[in-house]
Amino acid sequence: MHSLPVFLRLADRPVILVGSGEAADAKRRLLDRAGALVVGEDAPAALAIVADGDAAAVARLKARGVLVNAVDRADLCDFTLPAIVDREPVLIAIGTGGASAGLAKALRQRIEALFPARLGALATALAEARAAMKARWPEPATRRRAIDAGLAPGGPIDPFSYDAADRVPAWLKGEDSAAPDRIVPILLGSADPDDLTLRTARLLGEADRVYHQSAVPAAILDRARADAVRIPASQPPVSPPPGLSLWLEMAR
Which structural domain range is residue 125 located in? Predict the structure, then answer.
């Protein structure tokens, strides 16, 4: 991973913008949307965008410890600006590390078509229901499994459903939708994560823990949830802990 994706809260914070013309105007609009205070090169700020790729301006800013994005100069960038799918408060960012803004744009356009316009309303409804969810499922692991089941494809609050936000109250009152405790064996035919089936990719994203042979490559394990426990083992456990566990082994 060449960069660490982060979402910066820039409301009422200064960001330097250097340059003029269409590129600078586009960056200014983006900063305005984020609520940033656009300032000149000499103002104090932690971030800067050099819209005209001026290497001298980049050098001056970096000498002050400012993190710089230089438009069309990936070699000079401390950070890059992604293509954005905005379903506030849901934001989806697509970056290529400066390799191709055109590719990022094309991916954004396709992803835009996938997500309903009211996806942000679902996020807001879930935020407002946080206390109710904690009351219904006091244990964090049980609560997370119930949420995973609710948001799963075809689930009562499937995020790809247009009216998912409206279903949150009924979901909270319905029968427990958490998946049962289980271990799922997965036989991997390839060490390439791009060869994962959709089912395997989904299970990796949902699992509480991943038991695996030592031969399973890190690139596959990296597809699991960041907080899923990785457990090297020679064979699957007889009695796995509560929740969803996976057993990964390579095909011979």
Answer: 119-173
Q: Is residue 33 part of a domain?
A: yes
Flag whether 63 is in a domain: yes
Contact partners, residue 236, CB within 8 Å, separation at least 6: 183, 185, 211, 247
* Cβ count within 10 A of residue 130: 10
**CATH code (residue 187):** 3.40.1010.10
pLDDT, tens only, 40-91: 999 999 999 999 989 999 999 999 999 999 999 999 999 999 999 999 999 9
Q: Please tell me the total count of domains within the chain.
A: 3
pLDDT, tens digit (0-9, with 9 covering 90-100), for 156-188:
999 988 889 999 999 998 865 556 678 999 999
Q: Of 44, 117, 128, 50, nearest to 87 (Cα)?
A: 117
